[in-house]
Design brief:
Blueprint (H helix, E strand, L loop, with lengths): L14 E2 L6 E9 L3 E8 L6 E8 L4 H17 L10 E7 L2 E9 L5 H7 L6 H20 L12
Antiparallel strand pairs: 1-2, 2-3, 3-4, 4-6, 5-6
């Protein structure tokens, strides 16, 4: 899908922003049908900070931006409680079109990655806690007519 309307081709060491280069790409964290997610260093802060950059496909950037705008309004009103929000977003033009980049905090490994890293299954109490928190977050989104469209196997 690295063609017009598709994904933006990213290389380790690339820098992105809508102005002077700010975010330096360090590692690929994941991907989905409409975006890729990258670990990057924000080099415009006094001590560089780690961020996650979610880069949309060129044919989806407007739809994703509109959803992010709606979510931003809800964060401003406090309606989404402690659900993690994005720090900022910007668009940039690449060889495949215009892409939206959403800057997110880095939250840590998924529960399944953590389980694999420990080479064991999650303890039942922890699996229940993770499941409960995911269900609560999804219910909060649904109560505001938002729907998570991705898969949740990487919780």
């Amino acid at each position: 899908m690295y063609r017009p309307g598709g994904f933006h081709l990213v290389h380790l060491g690339d820098t992105l922003d809508d102005g002077p280069a700010r975010y330096k790409i360090v590692h690929k964290l994941g991907f989905g049908g409409f975006s890729t997610v990258w670990l990057a260093r924000d080099e415009h802060v006094f001590q560089s900070k780690w961020v996650a950059l979610k880069i949309s496909t060129a044919n989806q950037w407007r739809m994703i931006r509109d959803k992010q705008d709606a979510i931003s309004t809800m964060y401003g009103s406090g309606a989404l409680g402690n659900i993690t929000g994005y720090r900022r977003m910007f668009t940039f033009e690449g060889p495949n079109g215009v892409h939206l980049c959403v800057v997110l905090p880095v939250l840590g490994p998924s529960a399944s990655d953590l389980s694999r890293g420990l080479d064991c299954r999650l303890r039942p109490w922890l699996a229940r806690k993770v499941g409960y928190e995911v269900a609560k977050a999804l219910a909060k989104l649904h109560s505001h007519d938002l729907c998570h469209g991705g898969t949740l196997h990487q919780v």
